[in-house]
Design brief:
Layout (H helix, E strand, L loop, with lengths): L4 E5 L3 H12 L3 E5 L11 E4 L1 H9 L3 H5 L7 E6 L5 E6 L1 H8 L4 E4 H14 L3 E4 L8 H9 L6 E3 L17 E14 L11 E7 L2 E8 L4 E9 L9 E2 L2 H10 L5 H9 L4 E8 L10 E3 L2 H4 L8 H18 L3 H30 L3 H13 L2 H6 L2 H4 L5
Parallel strand pairs: 1-2, 1-8, 2-7, 4-10, 8-15
Antiparallel strand pairs: 3-6, 4-5, 9-12, 9-14, 10-11, 11-12, 13-14
Helix pairs in contact: 1-5, 1-10, 2-10, 10-11
């Protein structure tokens, strides 16, 4: 029997794209969000071609193109000298090589466009201020009086829905925190290039910078070791915490340290990971996005993996005559893909945070790699069409 309507718990990027992906297959959805309104905290994000290709299939790409920036390159730069090490061509090259653009924008912009699309779609219904706790099917039955053949847990790294699946993965603190600074245009130095995403690589930490049109300046994100402040996406830093952060950059080029100290009030959040385990119960419950596989942002693929999940799940459910088999097919497909992305992130973490002789060797190897060779290394990731 075909699935006619699903329940989606969580109205972040994963939940909203899942609703639109199901609607694209002719399947209706009710989206339940515990927050009374959708307010997105956090930072900017990078939308790589594997995700922008799918946003184009939803008919939304032109709305993002109107506000985002398409960097000409993704540059790797030494944090200790500001010397350019290597770069991956983006901009027109990304569209030509991978058939879709590479853009940067504020997370709130992405969520706003997705929410507008959900609210405009007759197959999607968004329910705010509606938490779903305890056993999800029973809770939803009490809330709506309906029985849903499928509940999708899109409720993030601290998912409630995940606890309803035996053998599901569990979250754990990665030992890293993510710091966000914003740099207004009036103080942006000449060495911070407006036409590229720049990853500054340094001992034990790295810093990513790119322009955001929505804030009139640069978004800067530093990933460093730290102590978790708990379940939060927006912790204000006290003087002791800021001093500890600046200490992470003590061996960096002084110009970077000076710029960070002049930046607007930094905020930070802990980076939690979700390990391996089951993403579905074989019957009527499944996970997408961070609820299934939260990964640290060393490959800048968190949002992109959620978008891929949504399309794969909707396709498997719409094509499968048996829901149980469809869920298994989705899990098998996506776990293999996410494992490869996770492995790439682990490699990037090692390379980006290298110290001593390993750092010197890294810099030499990168300087010898031509841009097109570095782009070819990403064909499996950015050119993915498996969803």
């Amino acid at each position: 029997m075909p699935v006619e309507k699903v329940a989606i718990v969580g109205a972040g990027i994963a939940g909203l794209v899942t609703a639109l992906a199901f609607a694209r297959q002719g399947i209706a959805s009710d989206v339940f969000e515990q927050a009374p309104e959708l307010t997105e905290v956090g930072a900017g994000l990078q939308v790589s071609p594997n995700a922008s290709r799918l946003l184009a299939e939803l008919g939304l790409l032109s709305q993002f193109e109107a506000v985002w920036t398409e960097p000409e390159r993704i540059a790797l730069v030494s944090g200790t000298s500001l010397r350019s090490l290597a770069y991956v061509p983006a901009g027109p090259s990304a569209r030509k090589r991978w058939g879709a653009p590479y853009g940067v924008l504020h997370r709130a912009t992405l969520q706003r466009v997705l929410r507008d699309a959900v609210e405009a779609n007759p197959l999607c219904t968004l329910h705010l201020d509606t938490p779903v706790r305890e056993e999800p099917h029973a809770a939803l039955s009490r809330l709506t009086g309906q029985a849903y053949p499928l509940v999708v847990g899109a409720d993030g790294v601290w998912s409630n829905i995940r606890t309803a699946i035996d053998g599901s993965p569990r979250p754990s603190f990665s030992g890293h925190v993510c710091w966000r600074f914003t740099i207004p245009d009036r103080i942006v130095p000449s060495w911070l290039k407006p036409d590229q995403v720049t990853a500054f690589l340094g001992p034990s930490t790295h810093l990513v910078a790119y322009p955001l049109r929505e804030i009139g300046g640069f978004n800067m994100v530093a990933i460093a070791s730290g102590v978790s402040p708990g379940r939060t996406w927006h912790a204000e830093a006290n003087e002791s915490q800021k001093s500890r952060l600046y200490g992470e950059f003590r061996r960096w080029d002084r110009r970077i340290v000076d710029l960070l100290q002049r930046a607007d009030q930094p905020t930070f959040w802990p980076l939690f990971e979700v390990g391996t385990g089951r993403w579905q119960n074989g019957r009527d419950t499944v996970l997408v996005g961070d609820a299934a596989h939260a990964i640290t942002p060393f490959a800048a693929q968190g949002a992109s993996m959620a978008i891929e999940d949504a399309f794969t799940l909707a396709r498997c459910v719409s094509e499968g005559k048996n829901l149980s088999q469809a869920l298994i097919a989705y899990e098998t497909n996506r776990q293999e893909r996410v494992a490869k992305v996770r492995s790439r992130g682990a490699f990037n973490r090692f390379a980006y945070h290298a110290r001593g002789p390993v750092r010197l060797g890294r810099d030499l190897v990168l300087s010898l790699r031509p841009p097109e060779a570095l782009a070819a290394d990403l064909d499996w990731l950015y050119g993915y069409k498996g969803s």
